[in-house]
Write a structure and sequence with these properties.
By secondary structure, the protein is an alpha+beta fold. It has one domain: Aminopeptidase. The protein has a seven-stranded mixed sheet. A hairpin with a 2-residue loop joins strand 2 and strand 3. The two termini are about 25 Å apart. The protein binds coenzyme A (COA). The site of coenzyme A has 21 residues, from strand 4, helix 3, strand 5 and helix 4.
């Protein structure tokens, strides 16, 4: 990555781009309405990564009882395999630490090798499995980060 990426809190101006990236990358994508609802929710923490003025990635989680439940995260297809996922995970862990969370968790489809590798390199560990969690009947792996 030669271009500089900056992370900002999610805001109205980013809804359309986050919705586009979500739809292009996530099988069970959130609706635009659900994405917009993150803005009014005091439990939600959402951030975007921006290069120049282009949104290239995003993530969100809900903080409940000092634990962060990650919703979706994705990197724009054009910008994948350039190390942005690593930077996104780093920002998320820093923000979660500042939020005083004790754990961060997510579900990932059992065959999403790229995402699983990224999470493991970022310090997440597999702690469980939800059978046939997805509409396509694939299992979800439950992963946690607890190294705050
Ligand atoms: C998963 C995703 C976020 C990774 O983002 P990315 O910017 O492409 O990832 P990076 O370039 O930072 O790569 C991070 C690590 O992922 C792994 N990785 C990246 N590309 C890979 C590939 N083609 N094959 C295997 N592992 C790969 C590597 O471990 C890599 O670490 P390294 O480059 O230091 O060795 C991105 O591919 C994405 O948005 N996918 C679609 C949406 C998705 O699956 N979201 C997760 C839902 S749970």
């Amino acid at each position: 990555m030669t271009e500089k990426i900056e992370f900002f809190d999610f805001d109205n101006q980013y809804i359309d781009e986050v919705f586009r990236i979500e739809n292009e990358n996530i099988l069970e994508a959130w609706s635009r309405k659900n994405i917009a609802s993150l803005l009014g929710d005091s439990k939600a923490r959402a951030r975007v990564g921006v290069i120049g003025n282009k949104v290239v990635c995003y993530y969100s989680y809900y903080a409940v009882c000092q634990e962060g439940f990650i919703n979706n995260l994705a990197v724009d297809k054009e910008y994948q395999h350039k190390g942005i996922g690593r930077l996104l995970m780093r920002d998320m862990i820093e923000i979660a630490r500042a939020d005083n969370l004790t754990g961060l968790t997510l579900e990932v489809q059992e065959d999403n090798e790229r995402a699983i590798a990224l999470y493991q390199k970022s310090g997440f560990e597999i702690e469980g499995r939800r059978k046939e969690f997805y509409k396509n009947k694939k299992d979800a792996l439950i992963m946690w980060y607890r190294k705050f």
